[in-house]
Amino acid sequence: MKKAIVVYYSYSGNTRKTAEFLKDKITRKFQTDMLELKPSDESKFFLKQCVRAFRKVQADLNQDLILDLKEYDLIALGTPVWAFGMAPAMRGYIDKVKGLAGKKIILFATYGSGVGKDKCLREMAEIVKAKGAEEVRSFLVQQYDVKNANIFEQKANGLV
Question: What CATH number is given to the structural domain containing 81?
Fold first, then answer.
């Protein structure tokens, strides 16, 4: 059976919920693993986190991580949108990850106001394409829609 992995960072739980929805959808066709990123240098203050995101700081991910994804056929990467970009935890992971060449990638992001959401996904796509990703698709979920399975199905339809 083909393998997939959903790698995500979630501060408030919105991106986690979206990752779980996506995993359920992917599991219909793939054996699917989940990996939640947990930075060791994360501030408890959201504003400080946003400043780090704006400055494109990479979080320190002191945990056992799967950094070589060559065994996976489908890779999903998810982050909240903070200060026009991805969370520092996802930035740190995407920088270190290997094995994306020739892979199908799904990028997803959750957002509140929507400011910077497209820029966030565009930057993520540029990075994974530079690492050789063959096909990159993406979707966005506003925080108010996270618990709505129907909206999620519409956004994720055709991605898997």
Answer: 3.40.50.360
